[in-house]
Specification:
The chain is an alpha/beta fold. It has four helices and 14 strands.
Length: 253
């Protein structure tokens, strides 16, 4: 059996791009429940002029009310249309989250304040197959990458969500295979539901694995791929949240 390490080219290129940090006051043009666990917001306004998001897993700050003040939460720019001056942000609906509480009650015409992204990480090189692994918090980045990839690219997505009703559809020119893993939300910090699918994932030469989920889950999935022979430099793993700790993350595992 050929060692995966022997079939991979030199490490992919990572280009880091800095952006001018700017706060923008936008208007909620639409707010819909995309799935039981996801609320999709369409934001618009003239202040989107100059907005840049070069990486599919970029993060902006969404300012939302909490108690007597405002708090910031990180969200992926799911889709940006500079011509229409529209920005789509998907918010996971979960109890106790100030951003989820705000998104659940927001009305068309309300103001939404964002900041950033501060920077982008663009991954390039001799990648011919993307392996995207994550949970519902990673779906905005996974969906964006799937939809932005070209027709010459293979992409496999392995996504854990609470139920079949939380599955999403994507419009893409890429050669796409999606594996949905259904597990209850209270087990979202458990790597076991994803394990068998990740262990069986196809890893041809040129595979880059991008992983984002609860920190321990992301770490476990990355370690399993590395144990199978995928070079660590052909992986990127992030803990978008940390079980038991509010507003915490490990952006680089």
């Amino acid at each position: 059996m050929t060692d995966i390490r022997d079939t991979h080219a030199p490490a992919p290129r990572i280009e880091r791009i800095r952006h001018d940090l700017r706060r923008r006051e936008l208007t909620v043009a639409d707010a819909v429940r995309l799935t039981p666990s996801m609320i999709r917001l369409t934001l618009t306004g003239a202040e989107l002029d100059g907005f840049v998001s070069a990486g599919f897993d970029d993060h902006l700050k969404l300012f939302v009310p909490s108690g007597d003040g405002m708090v910031m939460r990180d969200y992926t720019p799911r889709r940006h249309d500079p011509v229409l001056r529209q920005l789509i942000v998907d918010v996971v609906d979960h109890p106790g989250g100030p951003a989820a509480d705000w998104a659940r009650s927001v009305k068309v015409g309300n103001t939404a304040t964002i900041g950033g992204p501060r920077g982008s990480k663009v991954i390039g090189g001799d990648i011919t197959h993307w392996l995207l692994i994550g949970d519902e918090t990673a779906l905005p980045a996974i969906g964006r990458q799937i939809e932005e990839l070209g027709p010459d690219m293979r992409v496999t997505a392995i996504v854990a969500v609470p139920s079949g009703r939380d599955e999403q559809t994507f419009s893409t020119r890429a050669d796409l295979v999606v594996h949905w893993v259904h597990r209850p939300a209270h087990l979202s910090h458990d790597p076991l539901p994803l394990q068998a699918i990740v262990d069986a994932a196809d890893i041809p030469a040129g595979t880059f694995a991008w992983i984002a989920a609860e920190a321990n889950v992301a770490r476990a999935m990355r370690d399993r791929l590395v144990a199978r022979g995928l070079p660590r430099e052909w992986t990127a793993a992030a803990g978008y949240w940390l079980h038991g700790t509010a507003d915490s993350s490990e952006k680089a595992i």
